[in-house]
Amino acid sequence: MFKKDIAFIADLIGDPARSAMLIALLEGRALTAGELARFANISPQTASSHLNKLVEGGLIIANAQGRHRYYQLATPEVVHALEALALLTPKPLFGLPKPLEEIQYARSCYDHLAGRLGVIITQALLKQKLIKHDERDYKLTHAGEKFFTTLGIDVRALKTKRRRFAYPCLDWSERIHHLAGSLGSSILSLLLDKRWILCAKQRRIIHLTPQGKSKLNELLKIDL
Asked: 2-90 has which fold?
């Protein structure tokens, strides 16, 4: 039964038109059948049939509002499954359609920062020798501990938590690692609290503010 369940979901995702529509929904916005049809380059009638299958398969949900039905990915697990599959593709998803350019630049991944911005910050932390590779994880240097403490992150308290402190998470759109773990989560919270970044309403997209751009350049010597 388990094998049949996996084969059923794989078949749903594996159709080119359905996978295109699922990718369009990765952004987090609710889209109409017409918008998804244009994204997949198919007719509205064909899109409707595919969408019904995706709803029945539990991968997306539909909400009626006025004359339209809006579609969204059903659960965070569907999002993570699609992102994991993207890592198995032969090449990075460069040249994503315009609606997905923002999510490729900066987004949340579980509770940490991902996308090009997350990768750039992680690479800067490594370059400035604030973190370093330690087998499968990242380790704070003495300078890094001072750096994050000065910013207001209690690194000692983070290290007492049961979850992993800091580790590389492979970014599905950039194919380079960004920083995950309790430290990555604290960095995202810090950037939000200082309003250096802002979350798009009801979406996973993150926007870098002018102040954030200036401060990150000042702190990490990165040109954004």
From this structure: Arc Repressor Mutant, subunit A (1.10.10)
